[in-house]
Amino acid sequence: MPDFQPRVFSGVQPTGNLHLGNYLGAITKFVELQRTHDCIYCVVDLHAITVAQDPRELRASIREVAAAFIAAGVDPTQHIVFNQSQVAEHAELAWVFNCVARMGWLSRMTQFKEKAGKDRENASVGLFAYPCLMAADILLYRATHVPVGEDQKQHLELARDVAQKFNLDFAESIAANGHGEAFFPLPEPLIQGVATRVMSLRDGTKKMSKSDPSDNSRINLSDDADTIAQKVRKAKTDPDALPSEVEGLGKRPEADNLVGIFAALNGQSKADVLKAFGGGNFSTFKSALVDLSVAKLVPIGTEMKRLTADPSHIDGVLANGAARAREIARVTMAAVKDIVGFVS
Ligand code: AQP
Questions:
Q1: How far is it, in rounded angstroms, from Cα 188 to Cα 219?
Q2: Partners of residue 12 on adjacent β-strands
Q3: Where does the pLDDT of residue 291 fall: very low under 50, low under 70, confident under 90, or very high at 90 and above?
Q4: Per-domain residue ranges for the chain?
Q5: Atom 10 of ligand 1: nearest residue by CA position
Q6: Does residue 217 line the site of ligand 1, with CB under 6 A?
Q7: What's the CATH number of domain 8-196+310-340, 3.40.50.720, 3.40.50.150, 3.40.50.1820, 3.40.50.620?
Q8: Is residue 307 within 6 Å of ligand 1 at its C-beta?
Q9: What confidence tens digit (pLDDT) does each residue in 173-228 have?
Q10: In angstroms, what is the span from residue 73 Cα to ligand 1's centroid?
């Protein structure tokens, strides 16, 4: 595999209720990586419509996700922030990848199974093909690193499989068109830290998620201090004291989750958190978690509100990012067309 210029790509769906899991699993990593890499961060609105969306809410959510990136510390002047539907090449490359990926690969995707549920016949074709669009998002920019939460690991593996199969299927044409041994890198997932899978506050065995019908299951980035405090205080726990060692969290999913959230928000390990709180009761720990969560999240929520109050500013940021993304996308897509054998 030749060396590819390191580049980071990741996306968040504008499906409402941006939460602490999205923040700790993805957005905080976006901020860290911009110090060392060229980064492209995308509001993946084409993905959002794989399930039904209200157009007015979708538009507001697109702006809200862009605002969350910026409020958390992503710099759209140094890096690229845009929404996917403004760069038509995402859909174009996804079609090529629909023809590279195999039905069997997509049939094994657990997220499709979970989201389609028992009524698979009624799921959209887009929901089934979602991972091919995700592969296109990443590979359109020939990105080498993708910061995501643990739930996206399987989709990332599929993106690598698509890249590899494309490189093999078209090896001769790739070389003949002057691209050497491989056209696409095999993108590496960056799934690191203590909060790669933040769990529901109501059930420590379920992922914190935008679509959970219970708002108490998640801390939204838009929640105010009182709401955060109420949700943390109500968070499910068990009757025992906190353990002093990480091993003691083994069969205690709710305790493990809250300790993980504290550790991630405070830039610590779980062991450090247990050094401070082990042996104590949950109410003391929860009070500290309320203070920490409010201190870290409320300024972001406040800044998001300020930014979304001026939609024309956000739209300008997204349009500027899309123009810069398009410059890269056009070059990749032109090369892909030559490699595949299209006449242009
Ligand atoms: N609970 C989580 N813990 C850690 N990371 C998470 N991510 C999502 N939930 C958690 C990460 O956030 C990024 C953006 O996710 P997404 O918007 O693309 O959609 P998702 O993964 O489907 O998020 P949700 O909240 O679970 O939405 P629904 O309820 O619609 O399925 C990704 O990097 C993801 O890993």
A1: 29
A2: 43
A3: very high
A4: 8-196+310-340, 215-306
A5: 21
A6: no
A7: 3.40.50.620
A8: no
A9: 999 999 999 999 999 999 999 999 999 999 999 999 999 999 999 999 999 999 99
A10: 19
